[in-house]
Amino acid sequence: MFKYLLCFYLIVPISGFSQHQITGSFSPPSKFKATMLYHLSAGDATYTSYGTVDEQGAMQIDLDAAAPTGMYRVVYALPQSEHNFEFIYNGKEDVVFNFDATRGIKFISSKENQLLHSYKGAIATAQNELMKLYAQPPVDSINYIDHVQKIDSLQNAYETLSKGTIAAHFIAASKPYIPSKLEPAETYVAHAKAHFFKAVNFQNKTLQSSNFIIDKCIDYIFEMHTSQTPSFQDFTSNIDTVYQSFLETELLYQLTSLNILNEILIDLKQEALAVYLTQTYVLPLASQLNAIELIVSMESFLRVAVGAKAPNFEIKNPKNELKISLYDLKGNSNYILIFWSSDCGHCMNELPEIHAYISKHPEKDIKVIAIGLENNLQPWDQAIQLWPKFTHAIAEGKWENNIPIHYDITATPSYFVLDASKTITSKPYLLKDLKAVLDQK
Predict the structure, then answer these.
(1) What pLDDT score was predicted for residue 6?
(2) Less Cβ crowding at N or C end of the chain, within 10 Å?
(3) How far does CA 93 lie from the centroid of its chain?
(4) Is the peptide bond before 79 cis (omega within 30 degrees of 0)?
(5) What is the structure's pLDDT at 321?
């Protein structure tokens, strides 16, 4: 979730007397080149060290004697927010792990990390077994209580085993709802939802120094519903509850955490929920803390979010003296805005495919407005001859032009699908995503 520029070749490893080692084996080795290690604190990540991954997939980082205990994050690829894992360093033992690109992490050494991962697996298995009973009614009361007691015993045992460790914070905060008697499925779900955050102390600095609280909030938003077909209002109601849970924490931590949740929602293609979170909570908090850069970023996001009316602009084409804007275009059911450039290889490969698609499917009633981000007129003029069915516009000055700025364009090609009223209905990232959207028109 923390986005820092990963420039391996510019970073020099921290030197000093080594107290403990972080040793890893990555598989398959060909997928990994280097790692970066961060020490985590509430809402922040501090670079600690760098480690290369050799041809056999081996990596080793020597920690300085003064390295603080707590939570650490290993980043192994870009983007950092998607390619990382966390572990505990208690200052008393080396950490040895195997990391598989498909199966994830397994700790070979480090009792605390092994204990925490053992707990996660055991409690998840026990809860799944309880859920299986609900899936095969009628539920036998004695069998049900046996399963409930197993969950309770596991929780108590791991809390005892972890006492005095960093892992204890996570084990205690993960305590699930444990019913005292047989409950109907609907009652169990309602109680589980009501108790979801009861074991979590949002002010706990150890919990704040990890992905734990963020992951817990995402689980609550998407999984804690009493309806089998939750509505948009059900999801926003869960967001409201998540926000309430942050109220006792520091304002800066609230803002950082809610903004991370916002980024996750966007990554999950849940843009309507991200709009709700942004407008209702993130922007007011950013304004309260005078976080100018974040305010500008959020306003840019809202301006071109799914559900917003696309910003108007003049369709400037030196080949046509008529002055016309996006809003002046009428008569089509669907519109596609393509931001492209004649010096963009992906653009020159993808635009012909889109042109062929539109030509093949006139019944879909789609008009394409292709906005070329250009510094020179000549290559743009030559390229557009290949796509006569498009309405062409030029944004001279490329990235400095107001049109890509207003649409928050950071890469080409970029796609926006609009309805007849020019409302943004989709923002496909890849060509295949665009085709999938158009296939449904």
Answers:
(1) 35
(2) C
(3) 32
(4) yes
(5) 67
